[in-house]
Structures are given as C-alpha cells and as structure tokens.
Amino acid sequence: xxxxxxxxxxxxxxxxxxxxxxxxxxxxxxxxxxxxxxxxxxxxxxxxxxxxxxxxxxxxxxxxxxxxxxxxxxxxxxxxxxxxxxxxxxxxxxxxxxxxxxxxxxxxxxxxxxxxxxxxxxxxxxxxxxxxxxxxxxxxxxxxxxxxxxxxxxxxxxxxxxxxxxxxxxxxxxxxxxxxxxxxxxxxxxxxxxxxxxxxxxxxxxxxxxxxxxxxxxxxxxxxxxxxxxxxxxxxxxxxxxxxxxxxxxxxxxxxxxxxxxxxxxxxxxxxxxxxxxxxxxxxxxxxxxxxxxxxxxxxxxxxxxxxxxxxxxxxxxxxxxxxxxxxxxxxxxxxxxxxxx
Length: 342
Ligand SMILES: Cc1ncc(C[n+]2csc(CCOP(=O)(O)OP(=O)(O)O)c2C)c(N)n1
Ligand code: SF4
Ligand SMILES: [Mg+2]
Prior knowledge:
Blueprint: H1 39-51, E1 55-60, H2 63-66, E2 80-83, H3 88-104, E3 114-120, H4 121-127, H5 129-136, E4 143-149, H6 190-197, E5 203-208, H7 212-225, E6 228-234, H8 238-241, H9 248-257, E7 264-267, E8 270-273, H10 275-281, H11 290-294, H12 305-321, E9 322-324, E10 328-331, H13 332-337
Parallel strand pairs: 1-2, 1-3, 3-4, 4-6, 5-6
Antiparallel strand pairs: 5-7, 7-8, 9-10
Helix pairs in contact: 1-7, 3-5
Thiamine diphosphate binds next to α2, β3 and α4.
C-alpha cells in the first residue's frame, strides 16, 4: 500500500513551457539590500513568481530575512512573515494548520493558498532540521519547505555550516600556515536525507538558480502535488564564496556541469534526473573537472593540486560508486556484500 495520502485541493500550477510563457508579474521586487549577484535573492524572486499571488511565505532568520526586510521596507509583494532561525518546519505546518482552521470556521473563504517556508543552510540543514523533518511527516497538510543553500552562515559573517564544501575558507575555517584545510567534512546530503527518511514527503527536488525555468517548475510541481514537499537550491554567494558577482550564473552552471550539484526530482518515490545531470548519467555529457568550479572562487584559493585531486576523487566516487549517483550514498559494493540482498 502506498504511504502517500490524498490532501486537500491545491492550486493547479502547470509547468511554464519555456521562458516566454513566464509571467511578467513580480512578487519579490526591489527594496532589499542583498549583495550584488546574490543568487539567494534571485531564488526568492523565482520562488515568488512561480508560486503566484495566492501564497503565504514564512522565512527563517538569515540573509533572506535580514538583508531582505530592512526596517520599514520589503521586497515582498505577497504576505511574508519572519520566523525564528530553526523554525521553517514548524512555521510551515502552523501556517497550513491555521489556514485550515480559519477556513473551517468561515473566517477565511475556502480556497487553496500556497504555504511556503524558506530557510538557509544554517537554519535548515543544521538548526531547524528536526522541525523540517517533523513537518515532512504530516502527510495531510499542503506545505513546501525550501532550503536556499549559500553554503555558510552568511548573514553572521560566513561561518561553516554542514553544507559548506570540503576545504572552503570561512571565518571558522581560515587556512593557516600549519594547517591548510581547516574544514575537512563533506557536504551534508540534505535532499537525499529528506527522500530516504520521509516516505510521506510527496516531492523533493534539487534546483539551481542558473537553471531558472526548471527551478520555477519544481516549485510549481511541489505546490500542485501538495502534501509536505521540499526543495533544496544551491545559491552562489559572491561575498561568502569570494567571486566577481558577474560570475554568479556561470558558477551555478559549473556546480552542475562538474557533477558536484546533481539536479533531480523525486515525486512520490519516483526519481527523475534532469538537465545536464541526466546527460551526465546517460553518458551524453562528460563532467567538467571540479577545478573549473573551485578555482573561480576565493574560498578555495589555498587549494593545492593534492586538495583538488581529493575533491575530484570524492565527486568521482559519488558518480561511480553510489547506489544512485548524487542521490543515495549507499555503496554498490555494500549492496553486493549484504547477505539480506541475496
Ligand atoms: C537561535 C538563533 N541563533 C543564532 C542566531 C544568529 N543568526 C542570525 S542569522 C544567522 C545565520 C543563518 O545562516 P543560514 O541559515 O545559512 O542563512 P544565511 O545567513 O546564510 O542566509 C545566525 C547564526 C539567531 N538569529 N537565532
Ligand atoms: S552574503 Fe551572500 S547570501 Fe547574503 S546577501 Fe550577500 S550574496 Fe546574498
Ligand atoms: Mg547560509
């Protein structure tokens, strides 16, 4: 029997069939103070555009709250509320439950309203992971949680988070003379965690703002399919990653084309790779060397040939040995050795 349950009606947001079909209306506009070339802000713009006017957004503390909503100004053209740093999951669930109660009592007219909560990697992959996990188990509420990932606690000055890449220079991992690599953990596989751990979660996708149409269509699919859904977006951050803002789009492309950031969606348990990731998996596109991506960023300027080779070997390992490359980090070898699999 399927674990996926039918939810209350959602908005039917069909995929945009090409950029020319994307509406002009903006619901995240000027009025914010994010850095030039900030792809996290770009994701907010795409998110709001894809979701449309009948949407409520809650946002956890971080750049997308602090730089977005300076005193008495806001770029949001739809209802938006700040929530505590670890509270994306609980604010999404609370908002969805409150809307349902208000509609049941007749305070609000009955209509499908999108509920979206966003968080950064510090707020979502670290501090608020438990609340997101709890929200994703609530099968009968329509809610979308999006994690915008700039790979650091950016707002407080670029500290390491569990999604910061191996070796990156940050204010918590500045390379020294005695020890060059101060951050030696591998990036947390957040989307994989959500897929594997939450059979009630109807839709999980990884997206990139460099592939804007796909990112918007992932948002529209998540909101249409309903139930608890989750999207993880990689967002180049000129300040934290130390690159020329003009290269923001190119860096997003390179993250995908080097195979570091695989693009996929999982709908009710069915996996679909898309874009360049699919081409890589099907052997139609050869992954670019990770150095092409890493060496464009000042946070990896201290990398030696040895560090680059190690990073490359880890990405190769993911593509060659993971049970589902980029998604499920169980080893093919381990599967063969598992007596239960015989
Ligand atoms: C409970 C709590 N601890 C610490 C802070 C301080 N703080 C505000 S924003 C922030 C960084 C959040 O990082 P992330 O979620 O990755 O968002 P980003 O700033 O990178 O956009 C921190 C630590 C806070 N607001 N609340
Ligand atoms: S620090 Fe990074 S995420 Fe924050 S506003 Fe600047 S570019 Fe955007
Ligand atoms: Mg962050």
